[in-house]
Amino acid sequence: MSRTLTVLDRVLVLVLALALVALGVTAVVWQSGRLSQLHGTLRAPWLTAATTAGWWPWATGATGVVLVILALRWITAHITSSKVADVRMAGSTTAGRLTVDLGALATAAAASVQDTPGVRTTSGRALNDRGRRTIALTIILDPHADLTTITTATDQACTNIVTALGDSATALRVHLRTARTTKTSPRVT
User: Fold this and answer.
1) Do 113 and 167 share a domain, yes or no?
2) 3-state secondary structure 56-72
3) Bridge partner list, 99
4) 70 lies in the same domain as 94
5) Membrane-spanning regions, if any (predicted)?
6) Which of 86, 94, 81, 110 is nearest to 165 (CA)?
7) 119: buried, middle or exposed (CB in 10 Å: 19+, 13-18, 0-12)?
8) Each residue's pLDDT tens digit, 54-87
9) Which residues partner with 127 through β-bridges?
10) Which domain holds residue 20?
11) Using 50, 70 and 90 to split pLDDT, how confident is the model at 185?
12) Residue 24: which H helix or E strand, with range?
């Protein structure tokens, strides 16, 4: 989500929260009977005249259509694509284009760490994280794994990714998790 959309979300949530608080206070005051103690009467004769006018159904219908379009636009603005586009390589020309599939690169990087002692499972994926292409590697370790060996293997995998891409526009994230239980070998009886 962009910063503008985040700020707009927060402002609209604040306005909605204030409106709901005002509505709640009004309901409490009305239920307690203190609303009748207020002096004066609220009158809106123009509203009665407007609702009986011939343009009123058209105006409310047009307002409804505009609100539906705004709601659909709002929903589509919040839908983020998890698919990362292929990255164009430096050797591309008008005669041909060289691209790298970041998802396949992430999977290959995760597979290169898989055979490291102490690693149970690995996974890699390419994603858009706050508008930036990111390769995320998740590595699940045995509880007693040697972190120096794991760090060396993940550093090598990240170096291979940077070398393959040839630029630093793609962020790398490595998430190490320790397995909760010790892996037991199957019992044979």
Assistant:
1) yes
2) HHHHHHHHHHHHHHHHH
3) 88
4) no
5) 55-75
6) 86
7) buried
8) 998 999 999 999 999 998 988 887 776 666 777 7
9) 134
10) 1-32+56-79
11) low
12) helix 3-32
| 112 and 94 assigned to the same domain | yes
> Taking the alpha carbons of 156, 162, 168, 171 in that order, is the dihedral positive or negative?
negative
Angle subtended at Cα 187 by Cα 184 and Cα 189, rounded to the nearest 5 degrees: 170
Which helix or strand (DSSP H or E) is residue 102 part of?
Answer: helix 102-114
Looking at the structure, tell me whether residues 100 and 169 fall in a common domain. Answer: yes
For residue 68 the two structure tokens come to: 């539906």
**Using H for helix, E for strand and C for coil, what is the string for 116-178?**
CCCEEEEEEEEEEECCEEEEEEEEEECCCCCHHHHHHHHHHHHHHHHHHHCCCCCEEEEEEEE
**pTM metric for this prediction:** 0.55
Interstrand relation of 132-141 and 171-178 (parallel, antiparallel or unpaired): parallel
Domain count, the chain: 2
CA 113/CA 104 separation, integer angstroms: 15
Q: Is 69 found in the same domain as 107?
A: no
One-letter amino acid of 113: V
